[in-house]
Specification:
By secondary structure, the chain is mainly alpha-helical. It has a domain at about 145-190 and about 245-380 and about 425-443. About 50% of the residues lie in helices and about 5% in strands. A hairpin with a 5-residue loop joins strand 2 and strand 3. Helix 3 packs across helix 4 (about 100-110) and helix 4 crosses helix 6 (about 125-140).
Length: about 450
């Protein structure tokens, strides 16, 4: 079989556009190659780690007195005289090119996430094999518990679902899976609301009349409250909760800079980038948060302007939902068409203003990274890709001289064989778990 040609330098230059990212990747990659120059070094390290953690034993008699044949990747038990595979019942079961697996684990442990094509280019394996390696590592990360977890509805990842999976219907767009789930959820909510408003049957005429009187009293009270709210809105008076939301009292330094620039007049996004000299992701986070809380508006052509009080008042009245008292704060941010809103009560977007603001910054950074690295993902594996956030939370503490152990490799050894059959059974739920244990800088 012809060996695939490896040109790491060309792959780095074509995949990484930022100079700092290229330098950091080269530094981490050279460190990996100095410790694990070939496949043989990886196998030696794997056997050493398995013996250190008491994971290498005879599968027949559970004895640990083994003779290792590293060239054949097998062991021979001195007690029962039975041969076995070194990687049997481990995460690396049936692995042939261990060096490629070690490379992907090493990069992920240093918080360097790459797609399967990039991994295939620098290790010389097929793209399908590289994709299997990445998803196997994601399975380990998904099962790793962290201190703080935010539960977010899958609807908020509407714009990064761009790839098909085996669950996508024929002749349908990838996003059709999420739309179908949303329609079912909305139908259930409508049926539940309709059943609660329906009158319960009553055989007693006296009780029926009493229930009717109570209903009329309740309707009259609600009508008076509605008329009072209408009068307050016409006079421009808002409740304390709405006033707090409209003021958006606490702004970051970047948000204040944008507000100061826009007070001079409307500006395009390109002009703001030239004035501030920020990167695109930093500006997108600040603009998105200001737009969410009604401080600015982005009109056709990419121009940005400050939201006037008149426009803000009309927008609040137009989008106010009298029946929904706990509207998810992420819905208006993530969906420009304004047609879909989160219907899950446990979604973390139904938190305080400060909590929603921090969550928006985290999710914005994640989605920008997904678009830049992978171009988009399928809904089926959305939960797996969310587990990549944990790469920043499971870093190894400062290493002693000569120590090359990494945390992710230990987590992989603690997990048994993943396999393609298990990966195919994965399907992301409606309520996803995202580990944000580190505070995110908003802008």
């Amino acid at each position: 079989m012809k060996q695939k040609k490896i040109n790491v330098q060309a792959a780095i230059n074509s995949r990484l556009t930022d100079k700092d990212e290229r330098e950091r990747f080269r530094r981490v990659w050279l460190e990996f190659k100095s410790i694990f120059p070939d496949d043989k070094a990886c196998w030696k390290d794997l056997v050493s780690q398995l013996q250190k953690d008491d994971l290498l034993y005879c599968r027949n008699c559970y004895g640990t007195d083994l003779t290792i044949a590293l060239s054949q990747r097998k062991y021979s038990c001195t007690l029962c005289k039975i041969d076995g595979s070194i990687t049997s019942n481990t995460f690396f079961s049936r692995v042939r090119k261990l060096w490629s697996w070690y490379a992907a684990i090493w990069l992920a442990d240093h918080s360097i996430i790459i797609n399967s094509c990039f991994l295939a280019d620098i290790t010389g394996i097929a793209s399908s094999s590289a994709q299997h390696i990445n998803k196997s590592i994601m399975c380990v990360l998904a099962e790793t518990k962290t201190t703080e977890v935010s539960e977010v509805s899958s609807l908020h990842f509407f714009d990064i679902i761009r790839k098909r999976s085996i669950l996508t219907a024929k002749l349908s767009k990838p996003i059709s899976e999420e739309i179908e789930i949303y329609d079912r959820r909305k139908a259930k909510a409508t049926n539940r609301a309709g059943s609660s408003n329906a009158e319960s049957p009553n055989n007693s005429g006296k009780k029926r009349g009493a229930g009717k009187t109570g209903s009329n009293c309740q309707t009259g009270t609600a009508k008076k409250k509605q008329e009072k709210d209408l009068g307050n809105r016409q006079r421009g008076v808002t409740s304390g909760k709405d006033a707090k939301t409209l003021r958006a009292e606490k702004h970051s330094a970047d948000e204040l800079v944008i507000i100061a620039l826009l007070q001079r007049g409307d500006m395009s996004i390109e002009s703001i980038l030239k004035k501030t000299k920020w990167d695109v992701s930093r500006l997108n986070v600040a603009l998105s948060i200001l737009e969410l809380f009604g401080k600015i508006k982005i009109v056709a052509g990419g121009n940005v302007s400050i939201m006037s009080s008149h426009d803000l008042f009309n927008q609040e009245n137009a989008t106010r939902d009298q029946e929904t008292k706990r509207e998810c704060r992420l819905s208006s941010f993530y969906h420009a068409n304004k047609r879909h809103s989160c219907l899950i009560e446990k979604c973390a977007g139904r938190t305080s203003e400060a909590g929603a603001k921090s969550l928006i910054a985290h999710l914005t950074s994640f989605k920008i990274g997904i678009k830049r690295i992978f171009g988009g993902i399928s809904r089926k594996y959305l939960q797996l890709y969310l587990s990549l956030i944990k790469c920043d939370t499971i870093k190894t503490p400062e290493k002693s001289p000569g120590e090359c152990r990494n945390t992710l490799l230990k987590l992989c050894l603690e997990r048994s064989y993943v396999g393609s059959r298990y990966i195919k059974t994965i399907n992301s739920p409606e309520l996803l778990s995202a580990a944000f244990s580190k505070p995110q800088r908003v802008a």
